[in-house]
Task: structure prediction
Amino acid sequence: MSVTIKTQEDIEKMRVACRLASEVLDFIEPHVKPGVTTEQLDKLCHDYMVDVQGTVPAPLNYAPPGYSPYPKSICTSVNHQVCHGIPGNKALKRGDIVNLDITVIADGYHGDTSRMFVVGSDASILAKRLCQVTFECLWIGIEQVRPGAHLGDIGAAIQKYAEGNGFSVVREFCGHGIGRKFHEEPQVLHYGRAGSGIELKPGMIFTIEPMINAGKAAISELPDGWTIVTKDRSLSAQWEHTVLVTNDGVEVLTLSAGSPAAPAGFSTRQG
Ligand code: MF3
Ligand code: CO
Ligand code: CO
Result:
């Protein structure tokens, strides 16, 4: 097994799948309000993907080795939930922070992206700062991506920024290659040493999806076999983009009309 270099046709199809994944987040944003249940958000997204887009929700029945089939179409991770939260009948309340993670399959190709949402208006200063710093971690990671850079450059930059802000990086889950398969090589760690790992080459496509905790880095898994929470029950945030290594930099594939703009001062070498 090795890291695949995508063909021009693969890249065209990934652009479409990734934009569609981001458009599901644009669609669901106005529904993320106090009182809505994560199950309702799941149903809305499912129907939008299947009936409006004609895409397939990749999480539904996804069963990597050692896992039971994932029972829903999106992941909804609230407050101290780190990732893979299963939508359920609990209503969101004002001040919650929630990650919605969307993966669609379009014409056989996967697009994978997630954003944080603040429910209502008054999240705590800490919750808002955690969401913002994690967003910046994602973009600091993206900024490292260009041919000749190493995978470890991404993790090192993210770790330095997260820890410099007093937060911690989850170790057990990482970004991943993506294409016809949901999860491919390479593993994209969100911590590590600059210069380590494989050298990036044009045509590689992978996700960057830092999970950042307000408290300690340790996590545990709930008895449902999927939901990951912080061990100390501190807040956790995550943002995710799928990116392409281009001839002279990076192209962020999971962008759409409603994508939050990159933080001020962030340059990405598009091309
Ligand atoms: N979308 C997640 C990721 O970014 C994977 C979710 S797997 C699921 O890699 F089965 F929980 F949906
Ligand atoms: Co992913
Ligand atoms: Co994802």
Remarks:
- The chain has one domain: 8-252.
- The pocket of cobalt (II) ion (ligand 2) is lined by residues 112, 176, 207, 209, 240 (CB under 6 Å).
- The first helix runs from residue 8 to 28.
